[in-house]
Predict the structure.
Amino acid sequence: MRLTSLTLSNFRGFAREQTIDLDGDVVVLWGPNGTGKTTVLDALQWLIVGDLPRLRRSALKRDEDVVTSRYATGLPHVSVRLTDHEGHVLELSRHGLGKTMRFTMTMNGGASTLVDDDAELALGRLLGDNTGEARARFGRIHLLQQDELTELLHADTKERYRFLANLTGLEDLQRLDEQLRSELKALRSALRERQDDTERLQGGVAALEREHLDSARGNATQTQAAQARLRAAVARVCADLAQPPASSPEQLIDQAMVTTRSIRARAALLESLPGGTSEQMEELEDEVAVSRQAIASSTERVAVAELAVASRANQLVTLEREHDRAQRLAELALEELAADACPVCGQTYDREATRLRLHRILGGDERLREAREALDEERTVLSLAREEQMSAQAHAAQLERRVVATKQAAEARERARAELRNLLPGQVEGDPARRAHDVASSLEAATEILRSAIRDRDLQVNLQDRYVAASRDAEARRERLDSLLAEVAELNRRVRSAVEVSRWLGAEVVDTTSRILDASTPLVNALYARLDVHPTFRRFAFRPDRRYEAGHLRPWVYDDDEEADGNAVHVLSAAQLNALALCLFFALNLEEGNEFATAMLDDPVQSMDDVNVLSLVDVLRTLRSRRQLILTTHDLDLARLLTRKLRPLEIGQRTLFVTLAGWSTRGPRVVVEAREPDAQRARLELVGG
Amino acid sequence: MVWAAHFPGVLDLLERWEDEQAWLVGLAEQLSVEKSWELYLILACGPRPDRDEQRQLDAVRRDTGYTRKVIVPGADTLLPSAMRGYLAPLEQLDVDPHLPEHDALRDVERKAREEGRNDALEVIAAFRTNRPLFDGL
């Protein structure tokens, strides 16, 4: 089945719709750089694969549009017509991008049409299988892009192995090999992880066990000491309390604290009581007696003063009466003083002098004044006496209160003493408060010691608990360690088995790969000999091997005459490597069993010298009966050489010279020149010389 | 058109190959008015060349004027297979378009069965059913 025409529009450099006649067994596409030669091959790849991997690799985004013409007026479109040797026509068409992309397959002029998934499935069957691998392979087996295989020859041996294994239908083997490597790596990693866990746990368990032993040893001694300290502290507190041991040390502490507080309270009471002793009472009673005497004395003085005051008051009354009478007389006299003689005796007198004397009488009497002053003095004395009496009474009342308080204090003290006696039998002689304080202090100290002993005991109990918990933890860790050790042993066994089986399978993969590649090697060598790549290294073979659990593939060339050999990458020049890459491409292409009998080469000669180019022409001439050949070049001389050397010689052969030139934003100008064989030309026989 | 010439020595070849080419070109011109033939000149010499001679022979090989030259050094001692290698450009390409289908994984499986490698069979079975490969080991 070969391509007969290609129609494309809005596709990369082809904005307007163009149909290119490809109905030839040899198609030479010529044009200056940038006129769309590679785009024609890209269009064919996009049609089949649905993408352009060579551009996708350089796209920034996964869904970046690398297809649509920058001068497009619509969506990209590519369609081809293909015919097989019986004349059946197949049309494939791809239109649009992403989710709007449509793929159509039409057979025999519309007799049957498949769309999208059905069409893709049918295309997959045409390509050999329904997997994406076949599509990916299509781009490499039917289309040789510039430098692709040469780059492969320079690539990492492992990468080359993977690439060629995929191209030669060894995908399963390749996947198995990679999965073996990957899972073995994961298994080893799991083993290392478990081993690390085990080592860490082993260290932890050992440390824990050492600590455990030390703790056990220390704990026993410390626990005994703590118990002894506790017993001694309990005994001391009990002695201080003069009681038998309580039900627990904590209760004993409570009891001691209550007792201590009680003792301290009573001691404080004793200390705070105001007197109350017999000496104080006697002194107080003496003071009371003195006070009573003072009251009696002051009372007596008050009485005397009252008498004196009364006497003075009487005198004053008398004097005042006399004074009143004299005054009335004087007033009368004054009233009568108008006459110059006494009305009584008729004696004349000095009126003025008399008036003065009378006024003197009216104005006051010296005795009255003195009597009043004396009365005032007596009253002052009385007042003082009364104050003295009141003061004595107040003092006496105070003394009475003190007596009462002292008596109450004496009673309280007696009660406190009685209580202390109860609390501290036989220990309250002498100064009871001081003694009580001493006892309380002692009890407090004993209580503190007991508290400390309890803390020690609790600490030991806590340590004991921790020790028990640590023992359990150590036991659990030991069990986990045993489990991990068993797991590590099992993983070790599995890793050994996996390594062993991986080695065997890896060797078999390499052997099988070698065998299958060897089947292709004669064809590669036949092409290699035809291309006359190297004057002495005239045989080629792949050398598969397995290193570091990965398959590697090295291209090797041999000089059988001199028994020399070497890595093609090191021995061959760049142009020779390019020629070798062409051999590989043709071999893979020729061995591909799908329906597409096309080989497309994008600028295949690159830096080849003339002799290699002529060799390539020889090879192409040999291949044209098996493959439709589509070649691009920018070299006009080469294009003409190819057209001339690959001119049609037999009926049915057709050579097309397609010129792409005059590119504008709408696309290039396409001119197709077809050459048909000369049917009339005689076939000549070889004539010997 | 193919013309083969054998020379007793390398120097003979280097001195006389152009005569042979001229003869072949003349013959081609007699047979056709237009240059429509590919001309191949097989130049064989008996002994193996030394390095200097090899360089000179390679220069002849690279001369693309008039004919394509195929140099066969040491022809007297070449094995037939080696000789065919030199003459390969003249042979039809032997391409079998229907290479036998191979199932590489089945090949490996068969080999494992033959060798009683149950572990490998288990791994392949796991691979086929998309299970972890080493779980069954």
Remarks:
- Chain A touches chain B through 59 residues (CB under 8 Å).
- Confidence is low (pLDDT under 50) at residues 682-689 of chain A.
- Chain A has 16 helices and 15 strands.
- Residues 54 and 145 of chain A are 9 Å apart (CA to CA).
